[in-house]
C-alpha cells in the first residue's frame, strides 16, 4: 500500500508539472502591440483570418496540403519550426517511478565508460508483477542484490528481482571494444575472439547481446546491447517485434533519444491498431492492455517451455494498470476509430491514477476506417499479413504484385496519408474469428525465429553458469505460477459449488 501511495504521489507531481508547464502559443507579431497577452484571447479579425486560412487549406486545389481524407487535426497556430515537435511529444512514454530508485539506476549507468545514448529499464525488477507473498530477511534480499540502495529495497520489498536494461549505442563494435577493456568479466569466452566477432554474434537473431547476472553498484542486473539503428528499425517496421514488444509495455526510460522517441510513438500506435483487430466492438481497458502485452509473447519459445509463468501477461497488466493508462490513453484519444464510452479526461487524477479503474471502450467497425488501420500497420508486419491473405483469398500472383507495389511506403518526398484500398478492406471485414487467427499467426511468425535464435545465443554470450542459473530461476517462476493457477481454479470451483447448493 505504501508503495502505491508513493507512486501515486509521484504521478500527481508529474500531472501538476505538466499542467503548469503547458506552453501557450506565441502571439502573432502583428497583434503583439495591441492585444493583451491573455491566454485564449482573440479578436474578430484574427477569428475571420483563421477561418479563411482553414477554408483555404481544406479547399481542393494547390492549397490542399493534406487532402480531404486527412484525419488528423491540423494546428494552424504553429508559426515557426522551433515549435516542432512539441516539447512534451512522447511524454506518455516516460513512466513515473520512485525518484530515488530512478536516480540509483541512472547512477549505475555512469559506471560504463562506453557511451550509452539510449537506455530503458524494464521487467518485474522495476514494475512489480505481483504483491510480495511474504516478508524476507535482509540476508535473503542481499543474496540477490549484495548492496542494494534503500530505494530498491522499498520498491522490490519481499520479492527481490534482477533488473533488466536495454542499452542503445551508436557504434556496436567500438562500444564492445571499450566495454571489454573495462568489464571483461561481463563477457563469456567468445570475447577472446575480439570485439568484431562479438558484434557479429550480436547481429544474430534480434540484434541484441545480453549480459545476465552482472553486479553493478550493489545491484544484480542484466543488460542487453543493441544499435540505435536496429532499435529504430524494429520499432518502425516490426521486423522482429523483439525490442518493439518490450517497449509496448511500461518501461522506465533513463536516457532518451529523439529518433527512438518518434519511432516508439509509431510503435505504440501500431500496437493499439493491431490489438483493435484482435478485439470485439466493445471491450475494457484491461482487455486492450492484455491484448497488447500478449503480442510479444506469441511465438516466444520460452512460453512453450516450463520456464515462464503462464500467468505472466495477466500479472503484468493487473499490477500496472496506471502505467498502461499513462502509456496508451493519450494515444487512444488521438485515434478516430476508438473511444472511451465514459466521459474520462487525461487531467482527471481520480481516474488516471486509479489502479482499480477498468474503463470501457468501443471501436468503430466501419470497413473504410478498419481498412485504413490495416494499411497503417508497420511495413514488415503488414507484408506478412498481406501474404497470408493472398493465400486465403486465392489472389493471382500478378494482381498481388500490383497491389503490393501500390501499398509500398516508398513515396519519394511527398507527404501522403496511407489509405486502405479494396484489399485492406477485405482483410478488415473478414470473419472476426478468422481475422484474429491470421493476425495471431503473423505475430507468431514475426516473433518466433528472432526470439529462438536470441535464446539459443544466450548460451554462448552468457556462459553456461549464468545460463543455467537463468533457467533455474525461470523454472521456479513457472512452478510458482502453476501453483497460483491451480489455487485460482480451485477457488473458482468451490465458488461454483456453493452457488449450486
UniProtKB/TrEMBL annotation:
GO molecular function: phosphatidate cytidylyltransferase activity
Record's bilayer topology term: Peripheral membrane protein
EC number(s) from the headed UniProt entry: 2.7.7.41
PANTHER family given in the database record: PHOSPHATIDATE CYTIDYLYLTRANSFERASE, MITOCHONDRIAL
Subcellular location: Mitochondrion inner membrane
Bias-annotated ranges (Polar residues): 1-17
Enzyme class: transferase
Family of the protein in this entry: Belongs to the TAM41 family.
Organism: Bionectria ochroleuca (Gliocladium roseum)
Listed pathway(s): Lipid metabolism; Phospholipid metabolism; CDP-diacylglycerol biosynthesis; CDP-diacylglycerol from sn-glycerol 3-phosphate: step 3/3
Any GO BP annotation: cardiolipin biosynthetic process
Name under which the protein is recorded: Phosphatidate cytidylyltransferase, mitochondrial
Bias kind Low complexity: ranges: 29-51
InterPro entries linked: Tam41
Start-end of Basic and acidic residues biased regions: 479-488
Gene Ontology CC: one annotated term: mitochondrial inner membrane
Cofactor requirement: Mg(2+)
Segments for region (Disordered): 1-58, 479-501
Amino acid at each position: 500500500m505504501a508503495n502505491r501511495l508513493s507512486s501515486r504521489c509521484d504521478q500527481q507531481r508529474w500531472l501538476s508539472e505538466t499542467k503548469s508547464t503547458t506552453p501557450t502559443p506565441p502571439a502573432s507579431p502583428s497583434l503583439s502591440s495591441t492585444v493583451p497577452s491573455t491566454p485564449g484571447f482573440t479578436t474578430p479579425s484574427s477569428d475571420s483570418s483563421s477561418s479563411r486560412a482553414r477554408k483555404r487549406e481544406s479547399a481542393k486545389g494547390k492549397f490542399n496540403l493534406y487532402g480531404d481524407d486527412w484525419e488528423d487535426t491540423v494546428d494552424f497556430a504553429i508559426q515557426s519550426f522551433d515549435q516542432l515537435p512539441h516539447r512534451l511529444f512522447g511524454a506518455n512514454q516516460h513512466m513515473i517511478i520512485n525518484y530515488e530508485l530512478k536516480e540509483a539506476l541512472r547512477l549505475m549507468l555512469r559506471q560504463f565508460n562506453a557511451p550509452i545514448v539510449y537506455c530503458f529499464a524494464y521487467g518485474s525488477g522495476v514494475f512489480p508483477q505481483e504483491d510480495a507473498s511474504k516478508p524476507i530477511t535482509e540476508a535473503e534480499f542481499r543474496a540477490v542484490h549484495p548492496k542494494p540502495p534503500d530505494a530498491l529495497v522499498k520498491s522490490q520489498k519481499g520479492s527481490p528481482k534482477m533488473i533488466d536494461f536495454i542499452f542503445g549505442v551508436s557504434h556496436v563494435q567500438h562500444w564492445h571494444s571499450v566495454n571489454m577493456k573495462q568489464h571483461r568479466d561481463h563477457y563469456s569466452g567468445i570475447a577472446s575472439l575480439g570485439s568484431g566477432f562479438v558484434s557479429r554474434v550480436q547481429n544474430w537473431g534480434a540484434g541484441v547481446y545480453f549480459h545476465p547476472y552482472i553486479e553493478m553498484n550493489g545491484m544484480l542486473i542484466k543488460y542487453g546491447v543493441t544499435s540505435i539503428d536496429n532499435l529504430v528499425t524494429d520499432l518502425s517496421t516490426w521486423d522482429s517485434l523483439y525490442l518493439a514488444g518490450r517497449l509496448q509495455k511500461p518501461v522506465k526510460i533513463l536516457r532518451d533519444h529523439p529518433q527512438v522517441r518518434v519511432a516508439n510513438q509509431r510503435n505504440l500506435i501500431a500496437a493499439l491498431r493491431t490489438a483493435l483487430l484482435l478485439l470485439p466492438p466493445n471491450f475494457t481497458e484491461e482487455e486492450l492492455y492484455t491484448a497488447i502485452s500478449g503480442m510479444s509473447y506469441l511465438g516466444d519459445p520460452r512460453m512453450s517451455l516450463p520456464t515462464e509463468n503462464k500467468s505472466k501477461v495477466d500479472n503484468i497488466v493487473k499490477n500496472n494498470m496506471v502505467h498502461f493508462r499513462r502509456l496508451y490513453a493519450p494515444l487512444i484519444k488521438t485515434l478516430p476509430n476508438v473511444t472511451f464510452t465514459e466521459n474520462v479526461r487525461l487531467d482527471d487524477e481520480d481516474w488516471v491514477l486509479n489502479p482499480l479503474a477498468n474503463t470501457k471502450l468501443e471501436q468503430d467497425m466501419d470497413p473504410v476506417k478498419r481498412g485504413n488501420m490495416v494499411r497503417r500497420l508497420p511495413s514488415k508486419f503488414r507484408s506478412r499479413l498481406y501474404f497470408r491473405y493472398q493465400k486465403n483469398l486465392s489472389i493471382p500472383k500478378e494482381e498481388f504484385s500490383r497491389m503490393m507495389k501500390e501499398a509500398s511506403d516508398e513515396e519519394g518526398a511527398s507527404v501522403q496519408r496511407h489509405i486502405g484500398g479494396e484489399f485492406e478492406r477485405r482483410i478488415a471485414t473478414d470473419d472476426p474469428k478468422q481475422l484474429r487467427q491470421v493476425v495471431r499467426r503473423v505475430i507468431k511468425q514475426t516473433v518466433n525465429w528472432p526470439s529462438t535464435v536470441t535464446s539459443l545465443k544466450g548460451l554462448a554470450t552468457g556462459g553456461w553458469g549464468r545460463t543455467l542459473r537463468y533457467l533455474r530461476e525461470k523454472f521456479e517462476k513457472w512452478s510458482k505460477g502453476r501453483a497460483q493457477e491451480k489455487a485460482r481454479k480451485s477457488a473458482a470451483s468451490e465458488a461454483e459449488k456453493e452457488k449450486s447448493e
